[in-house]
Design a protein that fits this description.
Blueprint: H1 2-40, H2 44-56, H3 58-61, H4 72-98, H5 101-105, H6 108-113, H7 121-146, H8 152-179, H9 183-206, E1 209-210, E2 217-218, H10 227-232, H11 243-265, H12 289-317, H13 319-328, H14 330-340, H15 345-378, H16 380-385, H17 391-424, H18 430-458, H19 463-484, H20 488-491, E3 501-503, E4 506-508, H21 512-530
Antiparallel strand pairs: 1-2, 3-4
Helix pairs in contact: 1-4, 1-7, 1-19, 4-7, 4-8, 4-9, 7-8, 8-9, 8-11, 12-15, 12-17, 13-14, 13-15, 14-15, 15-17, 15-18, 15-19, 17-18, 18-19, 18-21
Length: 539
């Protein structure tokens, strides 16, 4: 027991700052969403009208929760529960992989298994660590909702509902760590399962049976194939069902049990899914560090590009729907106006969705630069730098590929916008608006690219947590700030909110020159400081 408690304390200490950001961020999102919803949809009539519109448009249902009535608490959870659950799921799956496959990959697991801890106790400590993290998330999220004046019962179901989905994906992350040979492969598998589950739950809700007054939906059978669907069917502040949350927890613990069995039977460092055999000879194009980075990251860039394509498709497909909603609900029209200046409603829809595109592009860029830190920790960077490749050229390869990733995601978004217009016979003038906003978001995403590169140079160990935290903060401020009623100066801290955009009669440059100046200055500082930086392995 002493060995187990030591392992658990080590995990809690190692993850304390990362978990603090995940947990507090989830609780804060719940709190500010309630504040924003109570201000923007303060009347029962407004909430009923928005629910009716959403239920009548299945595409909206793909990305929202399960409608359970127009009361304040239930309405708020319809808007935000899937995102609370998604934060818990990301936290849990990353935690699971970090303490299983990544430890094996970096040689730490071999040292631990040589002690009396053996092979199973570290995995059990990781399971308990994940349980405690989700318990803390559930309690703080529930307290955040209770502090707004919402009911205790519904708040507890909401908090523990998000955490229950997190437990499901703790199991997914643990199993991914047993299946895949690398931590990157395990994280990728867990993320794809997460996104697929999210879409299955949304599709199941969209195909569900609405009530006659269009205020509630009974999910279709498809929703019950997804942990997100189980969590949503707890219906906080409406039915307060607990048994779907038990199903989530049982699913996660069952996967954890399977992972323990696999851990006991396989060789350390091995995986159930074997690595693909590499080529005997490198292709002709693989002639430098930049080409090598592209080769290693092209799969993840393709995944972000698919997300960009879908975002662009939704932007023009839903433009007409949002225009109808705005004409019925002045609160929605005010939110669109605050985001898109003097643009029309259809242009405002494009602006909103293309800000999401900017976040996706920023994620692709940050992930690419974070790969530099992973290569440094794993020792592969040392082999590259032993060649005539200099430190600045080596880092420049990641930055260049990161910018290419931004451009690819933006281009995919514009392509998706064209497909959306063609599919619905819409207004082709929106294509010009989409191109302008996409170009502006390329500039905004490039800020995250160079900032992450500078963090990598100055504080290597913070590269991954700080890079992703900055993107998360920009998403909250830029996308949700107008909904939450944040002051303009706070919203405009997010680069995506001050990128060039469209207005009713032209283009608004907004903070373009400031963004370009920041990109040039930060990139220059990163290059200058990289010249004298030594390798910084993990430790």
């Amino acid at each position: 027991m002493n060995v187990f408690s030591t392992l658990l304390r080590q995990r809690l200490r190692r993850d304390r700052w990362q978990l603090l950001m995940w947990i507090l961020g989830t609780a804060l999102l719940a709190y500010v969403t309630y504040v924003g919803v109570s201000e923007s949809y303060g009347t029962q009539q407004d909430r009923e009208a928005l629910l009716a519109t959403a239920i009548a448009n299945p595409v909206i249902m793909l990305f929202r929760g399960l409608p359970s009535g127009a009361d304040e608490g239930a309405f708020m959870l319809f808007l935000i529960f899937p995102f609370l659950a998604m934060l818990a799921a990301f936290m849990s799956s990353f935690l699971a992989v970090r303490h299983t496959r990544m430890d094996e990959e970096q040689g730490r697991a071999e040292l631990v298994t040589a002690t009396p801890a053996g092979r199973v106790q570290p995995l059990l400590a990781t399971v308990v660590h994940g349980l405690l993290a989700n318990l803390a998330l559930a309690v703080l999220t529930a307290l955040a909702l209770i502090s707004t004046g919402l009911g205790v019962s519904g708040s507890l179901v909401a908090g523990f509902g998000a955490a229950a989905v997190g437990l499901s994906f703790l199991g997914v992350g643990l199993l991914s760590g047993q299946l895949m040979r690398t931590s990157r492969g395990a994280n990728s598998l867990a993320v794809w399962v997460l996104l697929l589950s999210f879409l299955i739950a949304g599709l199941g809700n969209a195909l569900g049976t609405p009530s006659p007054d269009l205020q509630r939906i009974e999910s279709s059978w498809l929703t019950w194939l997804s942990p997100f669907g189980w969590g949503e069917n707890s219906r906080p502040f409406a039915d307060d069902n607990v048994w779907p949350l038990v199903l989530c927890a049982a699913f996660g613990l069952a996967l954890a049990g399977v992972s323990v069995a696999l851990q006991s039977s396989r060789d350390l460092g091995a995986s159930l899914v074997p690595e693909r055999r590499g080529r005997a000879d490198a292709p002709a194009g693989l002639t430098g560090p930049t080409a090598l980075v592209w080769r290693m990251t092209r799969g993840s860039i393709l995944g972000w590009a698919v997300g960009g394509l879908l975002t662009g498709l939704l932007a023009t497909s839903l433009a007409g729907v949002l225009a109808d909603v705005a004409t019925k609900l002045p609160s929605v029209e005010a939110i669109l106006a605050s985001i898109s200046a003097d643009a029309s409603i259809a242009q405002g829809a494009v602006v909103i969705f293309f800000e999401v595109l900017g976040i996706l592009a920023a994620c692709a860029a940050v992930q690419t630069v974070c790969r530099a830190r992973q290569d440094e920790v794993h020792g592969t960077a040392e082999a590259v730098l032993a060649t005539p490749t200099g430190r600045v050229s080596w880092l420049a390869g990641y930055v260049l590929v990161g910018f290419a990733a931004i451009a690819v995601v933006a281009a995919a978004g514009v392509t998706g916008a064209a497909l959306g217009i063609a599919g619905r016979g819409g207004d082709w003038s929106l294509m010009g608006d989409a191109a302008v906003v996409a170009a502006g978001q390329v500039v905004a995403a490039s800020v995250f690219l160079v900032v992450t590169a500078l963090v990598f140079v100055l504080a290597p160990r913070l590269t991954i947590p700080l890079g992703w935290t900055l993107v998360f903060l920009a998403m909250v401020l830029g996308l949700f700030g107008p909904l939450f009623g944040f002051p303009d100066w706070l919203v405009h801290i997010a680069p995506i909110a001050i990128a060039p955009t469209v207005t009713g009669d032209g283009v608004a440059l907004q903070g373009l020159w400031w963004l370009l100046f920041a990109i040039a200055a930060i990139a220059g500082a990163a290059a200058a400081l990289m010249r004298r930086r030594e390798l910084a392995p993990a430790g």
